[in-house]
Amino acid sequence: MSYYVYMLKSVERIPVTYVGYTNSLDKRIKLHNSGKGAKFTKGRKWKLIYKEKISTKSKAISREYYIKHNRTIRNIIKNKSK
Questions:
Q1: 16, part of any domain
Q2: Residue 70 structural domain
Q3: Which of 50, 4, 57, 9 is nearest to 33 (CA)?
Q4: 5-44 per-position pLDDT tens digit
């Protein structure tokens, strides 16, 4: 089974980003946009700006942690999506 590490950007005047991992990307984004995803994502509309396919869950968790805690990488990804 494959997993995805992804980054979402909110569709707001001042956008924020969210990083996560899942094995069903389309389903997960629909959950975020319907208000049933992670607590942080409720009340916002999101668009996918980055995805990366990973072979195992443990590697996906590690990659998510790396991107989530590396502000430089997050800003590079966010700025490429403009």
A1: yes
A2: 3-74
A3: 9
A4: 999 999 988 889 999 999 999 999 999 999 888 888 888 9
